[in-house]
Amino acid sequence: MIRLGDGRRGWLYRGKLYAHLRGEPFPRRDGSGSGWLLRDTQHYVAVFELSKESWLVAGIIPGVERQPLKKLLADEDQLLKLLERWRTEAEKAGHKINRISVAFETGRDGFWLARWLRARGIEAYVIHAASVAVSREHRRAKTDRLDTAGLKRAFLGWLRGEREHCKMAAIPTLTEEDAKRPHREREMLVGEQTTIINRLKATLARLGIRNFNPKLKKAPERLEHVRTPEGEPIPPNTLAELMRDLERKRLVHEQILNIEKARLEQLKRAPKVGPNLMVLLLVRVIGIGIDTADMLVKEVLSRNLRDRRAVARYGGLTGSPDESGKKRREKGLARSGNARVRRGMIQLAWRFLKFQKDSALAKWFRVRTENAHRLRKKMIVALARKLLIALWHLVRDGVVPEGVVLRSAH
To answer: Where exactly are the structural domains of the chain?
Structure first.
C-alpha cells in the first residue's frame, strides 16, 4: 500500500498503480483468463452468505462510497431485485453497469442459484469453501458479516487474477448433476443394507444365535424355527423386531436391483453417448465392474480436467508435504478431492493387482514392495493415482495402459 499525490491510498500490482478507495473502480480479470488487469467502471461485485432461512448480500458498487450490506429472506426473486436496485444506484452515480459478478460458497444449496443467475445475465461463481483463508486464532470471531468481508477479499483477488486467493468450483448443468444420482443413491442403499444386516446379527448374538445367515432369501421363513442355545424360541417382541428388519432389508435390496436394472437399460438404449461409451470402454478392462466404471465416469472421467495433475488432485490422491526449515515430512493424503473417487480407486488398485498381474503398473508396484512389505499401504495410493491417470488417458485418448488385458467388445 502506497500514498498517491492527492492524499489517497493505492496499491501497486505488476508495475501498475490502482486506487484503493471504496466506490472507486477496481481491476478485473478479462474474459481470456490471462490475469491482465484493467480498470473497469462498468462492473460491480456482490457476494452472498447463504443459510436456510436468510441470505446476507454484500456489494462493492462503482461510484458509491458505502459498501452495502443487506439481509434478505431466502428468495431468489428478492435477490434479483436487490442486484437491479444496486445497478440503478451505480447508474445514478454516473457508471453504466454492463457486468455484474456475484459469488457464494459451496454448501447445502448446491449450484441451482448460480445456474438461475447465469440464465438472467449475471456472472455467477461458486467458491470452494475450504479455499478461503481464515484467521488461525483459537477463538476467532465468526459472524455472517465477517464471512462476507472475507468472501469479498477473496473474490476481488481472484477477479484481479492473483493466484491462490480462492478456488472456483465448476458449475454443472442440471443434467450432469442428475446423472450422478443413481450411483450415489446405490452407494447409500448399500450402506443402509449393511447396517440392517449388522443390526440383525447383533440382535441374534445377544440371544446366543450365531449360525443364522440373515442374507438368505428364505431367512424370514427360517427365523421362526430358530432356537436359542437354551432350546427356547426367539421371544415375541425380538422376533417382531427381526421380521421388520428383514422386511427393510428386502425393500432396500429391491431398490438396489431397480437402480442396477435401469442403468443397464440406459447403456443398451444409448451405447454411443459420451458417458455411456466411456463406461462400456472401462468395463472391458478385466478387474473393473459396471459399478466402479459408472462411478468413475460420472464423478471424474467425464469432467473437463486440464491435465494429469488435475485428475490426481480431483481424486484426492496427492500428498500433503510439511516442510519448514530442516523439517521434512509427509502428513499423508491431502483428502481435498472427491472422497468417492479416492475410496473407489484405492479399492480398485488392490483389485487391479489381482486381475492384471502382467501389466506395467502391477510390475512397478511389485518391484518397489517385494522386499519392503510395510510400504504396500503407502505404495497402493501411488498405484491408485497412476491407475486413475491411465484410465483417464484410456477414455480420453484411447491409449490402453501397457500390459492391461481387455475383454472382447460386445
So the answer is: 22-168, 178-269, 275-397
